[in-house]
Structure formats: structure tokens, C-alpha cells
Design a protein that fits this description.
This is Peptidase inhibitor family I36. Residues 1-28 form the signal peptide. InterPro entries: G_crystallin-like (IPR011024). It holds the Pfam family Inhibitor_I36. By secondary structure, the chain is α+β, with helices and mostly antiparallel strands. It has a single domain, classed as Sandwich (Gamma-B Crystallin, domain 1), CATH 2.60.20. Helices cover 17% and strands 36% of the residues. It has one helix spanning 4-23; strands spanning 36-42, 46-54, 59-60, 72-75, 80-86, 90-96, 101-102, 113-117. It starts with a helix and ends with a strand.
Amino acid sequence: MRTPIVAGLAALLALPALTVGLAGEAQADGYCRAGHVCMWEDSNYQGSRYVDVVAAGPYDIDGWDGDNEISSVDNASGTYIVMFDNDDLTGFLGCVAPHQRIPELWRNDEVESFIARDYC
């Protein structure tokens, strides 16, 4: 049988483990994890988060979910995200600078593919 002091100490020691476990989880809605690029269906980081990937690529946003439905972007990486109007990185749309958040894309619902680069 545990004494109250031992039980209390065990509870306190378990708390840091819980905190560390949460640190690796995805960020709150509307934000992207470090090193990732995220894209949402609606402006202001609302609606379905169709893209949440490590900034690299190339990436085609496939299927009807996300393809030509991107309205806001969070680039939480240290590279530029170059966006395209078509699959296979064709039809240049524009760039998102490193660590830039765009609540409403200037060309709404047109992004189909993207890649991370050191330049725009």
C-alpha cells in the first residue's frame, strides 16, 4: 500500500512526461508545426486542413479533397514554398516566404502542386 507522500511524488514525476509527450503533437488549429507547410480549404486557416507535410516535395494535391480548394497557407519552414496552378509543378502561381502565413491567397482555390526551395 502506498503512502500519500509516495503517491503524490509519483503523480508529480508523471506530469513532466505528459508535458513532453504533448510537445511533439500538431499545433492548434490555424498553425502548422515547425518545418511543415499547411494549407486550408477556407480563408483564415479554417475548414479542412488538406495539406500538412514536411516542407520538401514536389507535392501534388491529389483527389477532389484539396485539389483546387486551397485558400490559406502557413509556411512554418525555413524555405520558400513555390505554388503551381497545375499538377507536376506547372503553371506558376506564386511563392510563400519562409515563416510566412497567408490568411487569404491572392489566387483562391487554384493551388494544385508545390515544392520547397531556397529561392522563389
